[in-house]
Design goal:
CATH class of the largest domain: Alpha Beta
Largest sheet: 8 strands, mixed
Structural class: alpha+beta
Radius of gyration: 18 Å
Strand order of the largest sheet: 2-3-4-1-5-8-7-6
Number of strands: 16
Strand content: 35-45%
Number of domains: 2
Shape: globular
Length: 263
């Protein structure tokens, strides 16, 4: 579905990849999701956009600091980056990159929430963010894995204006989603304190929608990537975690096995 015309303020509006191998990433994601990548723009540090069926779905850029891991980042929509960045500091977060204009494309900033997860923000200009979501080969869901669930929910409410709905509130499953006035869901926050491995920081992640999770994982391997978590059916679809050849992790969501067409 087209995305940029109805994106909710505070909701994920963009993702991009910081990679140590730009040409490898362009090839890998092109073959995996059918993406076409624009030529890297030297005026913006080699930044480029991925498109699916002619619509922008993600961005990419060369990694500037070799010691940092390759990673996918999530950006939340703001109408006023300066105001939102100020609210980050007021509510216990830290501004890593102060708001800065990116030509006429928009204004970006990067923050760290009180639990330690990095989150970007984007105030659109000419670049409106996603032009396609929730279709195979496009971003399908966004999720924060945090050890500070109690602190995360009020932070995103106060800073980004979230309305929220609790989907589970037990020690086994504590999960809250961002919703709009109609109850449509945009992103989730998972209490991961009991299972996030030691040494793995809290983090935002993106799920890319696919037609067949298992087939996509098989292709990941053939293209030189890795399977971090095999596919499993859930009430929310058949989920898996993979990594590209340089280690940037991403998640997959597709139909559960019984929902897939029989061949």
């Amino acid at each position: 579905m087209p995305a940029h015309e109805n994106t909710l303020t505070g909701a994920p509006c963009w993702v991009d990849l910081m990679t140590s191998d730009v040409e490898g990433a362009r090839s890998f994601y092109g073959e995996l999701f059918g993406w076409v990548s624009e030529d890297p723009n030297p005026d913006f540090g080699g930044y480029f956009n991925f498109t699916k069926n002619g619509r922008r779905v993600a961005g990419g850029m060369p990694k500037q600091q070799p010691e940092l891991p390759d990673v996918w980042s999530v950006y939340l929509l703001t109408q006023d980056a300066e105001k939102t960045a100020a609210a980050v500091s007021e509510h216990g977060g830290t501004v890593m990159i102060p708001p800065m204009a990116v030509s006429d494309l928009g204004t970006m900033s990067v923050a760290v929430d009180p639990g330690g997860a990095v989150i970007g923000m984007w105030q659109p200009g000419a670049h409106r963010g996603f032009e396609l979501t929730a279709e195979p080969g496009a971003p399908g869901w966004f999720e924060l894995m945090t050890r500070d669930f109690a602190g995360a929910i009020p932070f995103y409410r106060d800073v980004f204006g979230w309305q929220t709905k609790a989907m589970g509130d037990s020690d086994d499953f504590r999960y809250t989603v961002q919703v709009d006035d109609a109850g449509e869901q945009y992103a989730g926050v998972m209490d991961a304190a009991s299972f996030l491995p030691e040494g793995v920081p809290p983090h935002w992640g993106v799920y890319f929608a696919v037609e067949d999770t298992d087939a996509t994982l098989e292709l990941v391997g053939k293209l030189g990537g890795a399977v971090a978590q095999p596919a499993v059916d859930t009430p929310y679809g058949r989920l898996a975690i993979a990594a590209d050849p340089t280690g940037a992790a991403f998640k997959l969501v597709g139909p559960n096995k019984e929902e897939q067409p029989k061949t």
